[in-house]
Amino acid sequence: MPRSRAAMCLPLIGFYLCEIAWGSTLPVLTPQQYWLSDLFNFVALPVAVLLFYTRRLGLPLSQFYRYSTAPDAATYTKRELILLGLIYTVPVCIVIVLSLHIGHIVASFFPHVLAGDTYNSVELSKGHFLRKVYLAATAGLMEELMYRGGGKIVWRYAFPSGGNTGYVLFTTLIFASLHWPHGLFNIIQAALTGLVLGVFYIRLNDLRPLIIAHALSDFIMYL
Asked: CA 103, CA 184: separation in Å to the nearest integer?
């Protein structure tokens, strides 16, 4: 079915704005309210958006996780996807740790710019194995599908002639903006991590190994 530029872009843009606005509510939420809102923003809302695109607009789900559907583009078996996910967990972990340190160093020079943190998911998950699993799984799945994958859809429909570099910068900006409530250091960390994951996505042509790597890396950070 024909798909207009507005139909393809506006739902995801609205989703991004909702996620960014969610950050402004964090300082006034109790821990219980935090978990309920997290469930809505990281599970219910992304599922609703995906259903809208796949059922209402008829977009194949593969459009969210494959970078290119060209006949000569790389494809993988299930075993290869899992293996790649495990392999890429190592560089993703390294990138997350290095970018956190870089973020803290840069933020130390600007202590009053977006200072402070609201809810720290690492603190909230302490002593709760299932919380660690939930936070890692939802972050890996939702952030990759909606920001890396969904960002590709918005980029290609909004800027049909845009190239790979523009896509990486665009999705990096979106991904970093999601982390604004957690301080300047976290914005920098998310930007650097998003930049590398965007490059990995183009290289692999498949988001699913990065979903695995992202989730495992986050889980390791929570340990």
From this structure: 7
Tokens encoding 155: 């980029």
- At 118 the pLDDT is 47
Which residue in this structure is represented by tokens 């139909």?
7
What number of other Cβ atoms are within 10 A of residue 121's Cβ? Answer: 18
- Kindly report whether the global pTM for this prediction surpasses the value 0.70: yes
Nearest to 7 by CA among 52, 63, 44, 68: 52
DSSP state of 114: S
Residues facing 66 on adjacent strands: 206
Helix H or strand E segment including 217: helix 208-222
Specify burial of residue 129 (Cβ count, 10 A radius: 0-12, 13-18, 19+).
Answer: exposed
With beta carbons less than 8 A apart as the criterion, state whether 188 and 103 touch.
yes
pLDDT at 180 (0 to 100): 77
205: left (phi over 0), alpha (psi -120 to 50) or beta: left
